[in-house]
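In full, the data:

***
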Amino acid sequence: MKKTITPKPGIMDIELYVGGKAYAKGAINVVKLSSNENPLGPSPAAREAYRDQSDSLAVYPSSDHSDLRKAIADTYGLKADQILCGNGSDEIIAFLCQAFAGECDEVLFTEHGFGMYRICALGAGATPVEVPEDERVTNVDALISRCTDNTKLIFVANPNNPTGTFVSLSEIERLADGIPQSTILVLDGAYAEYVEGYDGGASLVESRKNVVMTRTFSKVYGLGGLRIGWGYASVEVIDILTRIRGPFNINRAALAAASAAVLDEGYVSYCLADNAKWADFLINELRKLGFKCDDTYANFVLARFANEEEADTVNDLLAENGLIVRQVKGYNLHNCLRITVGKGGDCTRVISVLKRFKEDQA
C-alpha cells in the first residue's frame, strides 16, 4: 500500500484565521477599522526605542527578555519571574495548548470567543468545546457545568472579542472556584487596559496555581505590527511553558519598543481617554439611529442589525466610502459588524454613512 504524508488528527479541521481587511477596492481615503488597532499609534518613546535598535540588528536579542519582564512587572506591580513573553499573546495561547492539552482532552471557550482558541486546541490534537454565552456575555455557570475530567484548559476573554462585553472579577473568581484544580483557567486580557480598575485577573494568578493571564501590546500600546504578548502565571506553569518557548522568539527591536511603551503610562492614559470619548460617541449615535449595540469595554463597538442582509449592505456601503469594518460571521454573529474606535474624524464618517443609509431606507 502506498503511504501518504498526513498530519496528526485535528490539523486538517482547522479553518484558517482571517484577519481584518485592510483594503477597499476603488475607495479613496481608506480607514482601517477592522482589527482593533490603536488609531493614535505607539508611544513616541516606543518609536524612538525601535529606531535606536537599527545599528544592532546583527546581534541576537535577549533570550530571557529580562528588561521587558522587569518593565512589565514594575508597571503592573507583578513578579518578573512569573512573566513569560511571546510573539503576540497568540503564541502564549499556543504554548498553553501544546503543553497541557492533547488527544482525548478538551479545551473550553465561549461561543463568540477569540478564534485562536479553537485553532490552537485543534493544533495540539485536543477537542475544542464551544460553550453558550448569555446574550453575548460570558456565562460562568455554563462553563462550570460543561467542565469535565477531560477539560484541561478554559479560555475566557475578558473583555470579550468580538462582543466587547465584560464580566466582573467576582464572577471570574466564582468560575475559578467552580472548576477542578487540575483545569487551567486562562484569562485573555488583550483589552484589559480599557477597563478602569481591572487587573486582568492578575490577583487570581497570585492566589491560584491553575489561573493564567495573557496580555498583549497590540491594542492600547499600538504595537500590533511587532507582535508582542505576555503571560502571567505561577512559577511552575511558567517553567513548563519556558521549556517549549523558542530562545529568540521576540526580536530585539520589538523588545526595546515594548519596554519603552509599557513604561510610558502618560501616553497610555491619553489613548484610553481618547478611546472612551469616541466609543461613547459611536454607541450613542448608533442607538439614536435605531441600531442595537451593547456597552463596550474595549476599543471597538459591536453593532447589531435587523438581519444578515442589512449587515452585509451596511458593510458594503461603508467600504464604498473608504471605511473598512469587520464582519464577524465566523463568530456566529451574522447580523453584526465590529467597528474599531478610530480617530474622531473616522467615527464621524462612520455615523455619517449610517445616517445616509437610514435616510435612503425611509
In short: The chain has a mean pLDDT of 95. Residues 265-288 form the longest helix (24 residues). The chain is about 40% helix and 15% strand.
